[in-house]
Amino acid sequence: MSDMKINAEVRSAQGTGASRRLRRAGKVPGVLYGGQSGAEMIELDHKETLQQLKKEVFHASILDMSLAGKAEKVLLRDYQMHPWRTEILHVDFQRVSAKEKITMRVPLHFVNEESAPSVKLGGGVVNRIESELEVSCLPGDLPEYIEVDCGELEIGQSIHLSQLNLPDGVESAHLARGGEDLGVVAIQKARGPAADDEPSGDSEDGEDAASAESESEEKGDSSEA
Fold first, then answer.
1. N or C end of the chain, less CB within 10 A?
2. What is the rounded CA–CA span in Å between residue 44 and residue 29?
3. Residue 217 — very low, low, confident or very high, per pLDDT cuts 50/70/90?
């Protein structure tokens, strides 16, 4: 689990107009909720928050938030971006307790894809079915990512949720809810050239017909001359 930090300040002004003024001042409006305390309106530095959002680990880690002189353990739960500008409109954080399990989506890191014999020598193609895994665990056990080793997969084989090597104390939230043992990645046989990429007989016949028509016109022009 990475030690990620984020600085925030208590936000007193609320409403659409106040949020617009905050953004013009280089701040991001947000909210912190959960735990034993009530929801708090907060504001963060836009430049700092934008840089943090670019890091994969920021989305799947327990964050140390500094707020009003005290430290809070939080998770990034949601954020909204402007439709076309690189501008954060709002962020949501949730307090976490060290003794209570959390449910979080963490990224999957696929390894040994290109070096797998089925790909390197057999012409297979890796099909990533999922890019994230929803896990359930205590905050202290939350992994930054889950590694998926494709090195031993043969063509036609796949890795399912139940086959993932999860750290101690971490379980698939989907399976824990009684969900189906879904596939995560598979090796498929590469497709051959598409049939419509090959020259068709119709095309050649069309060219022959056009050539014959052109010769006929030329003969006609000569006879008129």
1. C
2. 7
3. very low
Sheet holding 132-137, edge to edge: 146-149, 102-111, 132-137, 171-172
pLDDT tens sequence across 5-47: 999 999 987 788 888 899 999 999 999 999 878 899 999 999 9
Write down all domains in the chain, each with its CATH number in brackets: 4-95 (2.40.240.10), 102-189 (2.170.120.20)
Structure tokens at 52: 């943090």
Residue 119 CA: distances (Å) to CA of 31, 84, 107, 126: 47, 39, 23, 8
Hey, how many other C-beta atoms are within 10 angstroms of the C-beta on 122?
13
Q: Which two tokens stand for residue 198?
A: 């090959």
User: CB of 124 within 8 A of CB of 118?
Assistant: yes
Q: How far apart are CA 73 and CA 95, in angstroms?
A: 6
